[in-house]
Amino acid sequence: xxxxxxxxxxxxxxxxxxxxxxxxxxxxxxxxxxxxxxxxxxxxxxxxxxxxxxxxxxxxxxxxxxxxxxxxxxxxxxxxxxxxxxxxxxxxxxxxxxxxxxxxxxxxxxx
Length: 111
Hints:
Blueprint: E1 2-6, E2 17-27, E3 30-42, E4 45-54, E5 58-68, E6 74-84, E7 87-90, E8 95-98, E9 104-105
Antiparallel strand pairs: 1-2, 2-3, 3-4, 4-5, 5-6, 6-7, 6-8, 8-9
């Protein structure tokens, strides 16, 4: 297991930089192999990714990119991809996510 986190202010977690890599993670009967995660911010730009294999021998990769709003209570999602061996989906157009009063999203369309 390798974990690296850089955060100037822990009360603002979306401004952190971090990586996680694990050969194997198990929670009950669920086993994930080759788990990796990355979160990078530069100003208000956010990039995140998650990849693993396991879960019924599937490989899965998710990527996110967007711009945090000024108060860090929302995100304009510019890129979102989900990939596994049989398919790949991408965000068709930017959308907004908010989490001030619970998770809120504008219509989200993947192709």
